[in-house]
Amino acid sequence: MSFEIDTRGQTQSTRPGIEEIMDPAPVVIRENYRGSGKLQGKTALITGGDSGIGRSVAVHFAREGADVAIVYLDESQDASDTKAMVEAEGKNCLLLRGDIRSEVFCKEAVSRAVNEFGKLNILVNNAAEQHPKENVTEISPDQLNDTFATNIFSFFYFTQAVLPYLDEGDSIINTTSVTAYHGSPSLLDYSSTKGAIVAYTRSLADNLAEKGIRVNAVAPGPIWTPLIPSTFDSERVKQFGKDTPFKRPGQPCEVATCYVFLASEDASYMSGQVLHPNGGQVVNG
């Protein structure tokens, strides 16, 4: 299956972006992807699960046997579409709308998921925001606070809320970014949060090792999601992903399988690690 795409330089006027209006649409799951029950009987909570990588993870988890709760901001149609995709796999999907910058909401979301499914086994901290600025002096205190609140504070909030329900063998998976390793001159605050996520993943993995709870991360490269046309101008969208060795952006389905692996028993001896689906870019760590 070819994943070559023409992004057409399309842009969107609202953030974090709407998958429903993307053309071409991101590839959520390969037609020939066959589930094998890797997550049978498990339940997962995924932030930013309405679209992009989060949607793809939700559908892959469902095909592998898991029920899924997805957290989203206000993209109701995208969330409903993801719910339909999960249910088409024969699994249950709970929609949780709210602002993950709020600790109160994060606790409520976890409580609702536990009430719905009776348990939680997998937490995917995935939601993020980014706001390009060419100069560090252009980053306002409000932008800085919002980016850190969404991209790293929420990871603490959800982890704290989920921990009482996680048992030995359960898993936390954090979404970081290739920018944590090679930086991004126009995404200074975003890249900083992604670096913090790497440190958080390693530290939390060590902290929870005695409980048998594994903590890992995925560091995607340039992936075709709603965040891209809603963030960058037309010219940058046209060139998106072409600076990788593969000369193209990746698709969400090329990333989601990393989460399946890390959530399953296949990764039973892995914790504190980061996987790098990034189109062939060599990074350390």
UniProtKB/TrEMBL annotation:
<dbReference type="InterPro" id="IPR036291">
    <property type="entry name" value="NAD(P)-bd_dom_sf"/>
</dbReference>
<dbReference type="InterPro" id="IPR020904">
    <property type="entry name" value="Sc_DH/Rdtase_CS"/>
</dbReference>
<keyword id="KW-0560">Oxidoreductase</keyword>
<protein>
    <recommendedName>
        <fullName>NAD(P)-dependent dehydrogenase, short-chain alcohol dehydrogenase family</fullName>
    </recommendedName>
</protein>
<dbReference type="Pfam" id="PF13561">
    <property type="entry name" value="adh_short_C2"/>
</dbReference>
<comment type="similarity">
    <text>Belongs to the short-chain dehydrogenases/reductases (SDR) family.</text>
</comment>
<dbReference type="InterPro" id="IPR002347">
    <property type="entry name" value="SDR_fam"/>
</dbReference>
